[in-house]
């Protein structure tokens, strides 16, 4: 079979061979790119986040993506520093994380970063709540 294909290619003009070669290279490149995408998205092992440190700082961890990140980082074994505005929501999130991942250390910091940047962030120790 391959001998038959080679014989038919030998009888083709040079421009057909150039197009065939160019198309074959392009299709091979696309196939290799697809295989690389499959490896990166499905087969590659996850990064070890603990090599960057044992603590993760999360702002706005009480709702949405921040809350999901909190649970995911706790699942990966990192300790958390949760910074938010509402102490009740922070306590609720930290309690639910502690209930699910008991070994995770969690520190809650209540702080409001709103305001003008010209004035800087004013830190008042009375607004600091650290719960271990």
Automatic annotation (TrEMBL):
* Transmembrane annotation, as ranges: 14-40
Q: Which GO terms describe its cellular component?
A: endoplasmic reticulum
The protein's UniProt keywords, in alphabetical order, are:
Membrane, Oxidoreductase, Transmembrane, Transmembrane helix
Give one GO term, molecular function aspect. ketoreductase activity
Keyword Membrane in record: yes
InterPro entries attached to this UniProt entry: NAD(P)-bd_dom_sf (IPR036291), VLCFA-Steroid_DH (IPR051019)
Claim: Membrane is one of the keywords in the record: yes
Which family does the UniProt entry place this protein in?
Belongs to the short-chain dehydrogenases/reductases (SDR) family.
- State the protein's name: Very-long-chain 3-oxoacyl-CoA reductase
Organism whose genome encodes this protein: Acer yangbiense
